[in-house]
Amino acid sequence: MTRTLAELTTIRVGGPPRRLVSVTTEEELVEAVQEVDRAGEPLLVVGGASNLLVSDEGFPGTVVLVRTAGIEVPSASACGGVTVTVAAGETWDDVVVRAVEQGWSGIEALSGIPGATGATPVQNVGAYGQEVAQTIARVRVWDRLEGRVRTMFPTDLEFSYRHSVLKGSMLGAGEVTPRFVVLTVTFSLRPSELSQPVRYAALATGLGVELGTRVPLRDAREAVLQQRRDRGMVLDAADHDTWSCGSFFTNPILTSGQMAAVRERAAARLGPDGPTPPEFAGGGEGKVKTSAAWLIERAGFAKGYATLDGRPAGLSTKHTLALTNRGTARAEDVLAVARDVRDGVAEAFGVRLVNEPVLVGLEL
Fold this sequence. Notes:
The protein is an alpha+beta fold. The chain folds into three domains: 5-66, Uridine Diphospho-n-acetylenolpyruvylglucosamine Reductase, domain 2 (2-Layer Sandwich); 71-228, Uridine Diphospho-n-acetylenolpyruvylglucosamine Reductase, domain 3 (2-Layer Sandwich), CATH 3.30.465; 240-360, Uridine Diphospho-n-acetylenolpyruvylglucosamine Reductase, domain 1 (Alpha-Beta Complex). The chain has helices at 26-39, 92-102, 154-157, 165-168, 201-207, 217-230, 256-270, 292-298, 331-349, and strands at residues 17-23, 43-46, 52-54, 59-66, 71-77, 81-87, 104-105, 126-127, 130-131, 136-143, 148-152, 180-191, 244-247, 253-255, 287-289, 313-315, 322-325, 358-360. Strands 5, 6, 7, 10, 11 and 12 form a six-stranded antiparallel sheet that branches. Strands 1-4-2 form a three-stranded parallel sheet, with helices on one face. Helix 5 crosses helix 6. The model has no long low-confidence stretch (mean pLDDT 94).
């Protein structure tokens, strides 16, 4: 029986829930949420718990642990593609494995990401040039305000970088109690033994191909997993670098004026011939995305950084975007590192980094 949320979260931090309910069917999930709502209790819905940093005091309400299962293929054809409907509680990487084995292309670059499938549309999970928004056809949810099951399509979901209407529509104070509880996610994939075009430079280098090349699905998956292992992003109980929430900060999205100011600060800090901050598409109209990892490193925070007071938390020794539990960390230890990094980047470059994990009972 789970005693604390540290036993569930991938960063292994978090106090006890007041009550925990585990559900294995869609009916049980809806019933559990309705029961919580009738009682007027706080609700926290947990799948793989890979994107949560929970207070050491725990959660003062009911945690619903989603363990629903099922992968269905309503339709598949060479012309129409492959439709795959997945229960919210299915482990995400199991879905990717199934797709690679069956020759369904479109999510192979999302290999090795921990967590449950139901969480993927909430923050529009993405990595190595792919996002789930590119393949999601619809999401069935329980709408707690309207008290009914709804089917939401991409236009309803309003996907953007690490965001969706599911993430933005929270009830009450904080950002942990969802209006929409995901029941199933339906993906539209392509029948092919080849990946989608490789769009991430480091991945292309690892595969030994040019950007835009398509490679066998299995090769793409293994190359992604190797990239993630190199960064401590594949869960391993023996490796404290993997005791994390994944990337702790999102890549900043800036206006052209803000980006120009960052370049000026970089030149002043690193020299006129020094490295310049990278710029990527995907920030939206009139905006540009830059690298949080680049800013962190150039602000003076190296891999393995820890606070001067010796807290058992720090940056990963493999990847500066991951904040890790070195074995006995509490939530405040992790936040102390996060605040150091956030404030240091703001001082160096005038950019305030935003946390990607959901903070439960905490403020950065």
